[in-house]
Write a structure and sequence with these properties.
Shape: elongated
Structural class: alpha/beta
Transmembrane segments: 12-31, 78-100, 112-132, 162-179, 191-210, 238-260, 319-349, 369-396
Radius of gyration: 28 Å
Oligomer: single chain
Largest sheet: 4 strands, mixed
Membrane topology: Multi-pass membrane protein
Domain SLC26A/SulP transporter: 7-374
Subcellular location: Membrane
Organism: Streptomyces cellulosae
Mean pLDDT: 86
Strand order of the largest sheet: 3-4-5-6
Low-confidence stretches: none
Order of helices and strands: HHEHHHHHHHHHHEHHHHHHEEHEHE
Number of strands: 6
Helix content: 55-70%
Strand content: 5-15%
Number of helices: 20
Length: 482
């Protein structure tokens, strides 16, 4: 005990994290369109590989709801064997980014884009899992999911089995929402686990006609990618998917690390090493043909709140997942699919920052607009392009705000008109500058003072020179200073 002074706290915390992670690992796998066991494999790797590596001491990694939509699209487009290749190369890319010390640059990403990304994922996740909760097949596109809701609701209400399935899913969500309000020891049990156990018990006891998890066995589910699978790398779409996996998983992990650091007073995250730890984990997951991993804020916060003191807690949570997958895999076959859908609907709802959006709209409407546009773009187009749209908007907004220029025109009635420019003159402000200059009298000399400009880009410099030549052709010449 002297060598491991915090072992008792870490073991207790690891059990809590295991109980939180178990239903989420299975639910994310099923929602991603892969065997349930692959979610457990990713959770195990997150504990035993990423958990052992340096970076962040208390954050926990595993399959995340935030990548569910992207994984489902990848599996649907390229097949399950290609998933291992995609995750493997994404992991190697993360390792390279960490080695190049790019981890800290992810902290510079716009918070509005990150929150918009999570909100968009949440919306698509909720829309897809509402179909799953009713036992119906969900359309492929995000817009199609939303437009198909009325018809799906009519089908669910008309069929006995669909209605029963929807009731189980809705009951799971209600239990999760109310469970944490219970006093005493019961409230200490993770809500997701309690909801799944209750749903499983009710459907089994009353023979409710709902679909359950299909169990194929741990060893049968692990399918390392063969040589033929690497042929998908010739597809440009696959390369875009790999880039999306790497960037989004890295951003979510490091954003989570910053949040977890605020929850405890222990060692701070070393971002480049954490990025390499995530890359190592995803490389192993790719070799096993499993789901991609990220650091997950729900499991990480549960780890901190349960009293974890060292990385031993997250490693042990991987041990418990491994023991469960090895000894009790048949237990998964009892879990009703609508209960897992309910867990992910709840998770998707929590990804949408409703309160933050309201306060952001009151204080910084530009940032709120970026958040909303990013989320809507992800729903309408896809995850990768939606994030790129959000990043582009963020860059444009920053450029616009940083290119503030002030024009002062002083006309004393006699002598030259004095024009004083200060600030940052970029092409974004060029229309305003030219409108002011072109409104000046053509028959008067002009003194244009640029000495107070902090920045003058090529477009503005060229435009000012051309304007001075035109103005000087019909009037006394323009005098430029600066």
């Amino acid at each position: 005990m002297h060598r491991f002074p915090h072992l008792r706290q870490d073991v207790a915390a690891s059990l809590v994290v295991f109980l939180v992670a178990l239903p989420l690992c299975v639910g994310v796998a099923v929602a991603s369109g892969v065997p349930a066991e692959l979610g457990l494999v990713t959770g195990i790797v997150g504990g035993l590989v990423t958990g052992l590596l340096p970076g962040s001491s208390l954050q926990v990694s595993g399959p995340a709801a935030g990548l569910t939509v992207l994984v489902y699209q990848a599996v649907d487009s390229y097949g399950l064997p290609a998933l291992g290749v995609i995750v493997l190369v994404a992991g190697l890319l993360q390792l390279a980014m960490g080695a190049l010390r790019l981890g800290r640059w992810f902290r510079a990403m716009s918070l509005s884009v990150i929150e918009g990304m999570l909100a968009g994922i949440g919306l698509v996740l909720i829309a897809g899992q509402l179909y799953a909760a009713a036992g119906l097949e969900a359309p492929a596109g995000g817009v199609d999911k939303l437009l198909g809701m009325p018809g799906a609701a009519a089908d669910a209400l008309a069929g006995r089995e669909a209605l029963a399935s929807l009731a189980v899913g809705a009951g799971t969500v209600v239990v999760m929402v109310l469970w944490r309000r219970l006093p005493g020891p019961a409230g200490a049990v993770p809500g997701a686990l309690a909801a799944v156990l209750l749903a499983t018990a009710v459907t089994a006891a009353f023979a409710v006609p709902v679909s359950t998890v299909e169990v194929t066995g741990l060893l049968a589910s692990v399918q390392p990618p063969g040589a033929d699978a690497f042929g998908v790398l010739q597809d440009v779409g696959v390369l875009g998917t790999i880039l999306a996996f790497a960037l989004i998983a890295s951003a979510e992990s490091l954003f989570s690390a910053a949040a977890v650091d605020r929850l405890h007073t222990g060692p701070r995250t070393r971002y480049n090493r954490e990025l390499m730890a995530q890359g190592a984990g995803n490389t192993v997951c790719g070799l096993l043909g499993a789901l991609p991993m990220t650091a997950v804020i729900v499991r990480s916060s549960a780890n901190v709140q349960a009293g974890a003191r060292t990385k031993a807690s997250r490693v042990l949570h991987g041990v418990w997942l491994l023991l469960f997958a090895a000894l009790l895999p048949s237990a998964l076959a009892w879990i009703p699919l609508p209960a897992l859908a309910g867990i992910l609907i709840h998770a998707g709802w929590k990804l949408i920052p409703f309160r933050g959006l309201v306060s952001l709209w009151r204080g910084q409407r530009g940032e709120a607009l970026i958040l909303v546009v990013t989320a809507v773009s992800i729903v309408v187009v896809n995850m990768f392009e939606g994030v790129l749209i959000g990043l582009a908007l963020s860059v444009v907004k920053t450029a616009w705000e940083s290119s503030k220029v002030k024009l002062e025109v002083m006309d004393k009635g006699a002598g030259p008109i004095q024009v004083h420019l200060s600030g940052n003159a970029t092409f974004l402000r060029l229309p305003k500058i030219l409108d002011t200059l072109e409104s000046l009298p053509q028959d008067r000399p002009v003194e244009l003072d640029l000495t107070s400009l902090h920045h003058l880009d090529h477009a503005v410099s060229t435009a000012l020179s051309h304007w001075a030549e035109r103005h000087g052709a019909d009037a006394p010449p323009v005098r430029l200073t600066g």
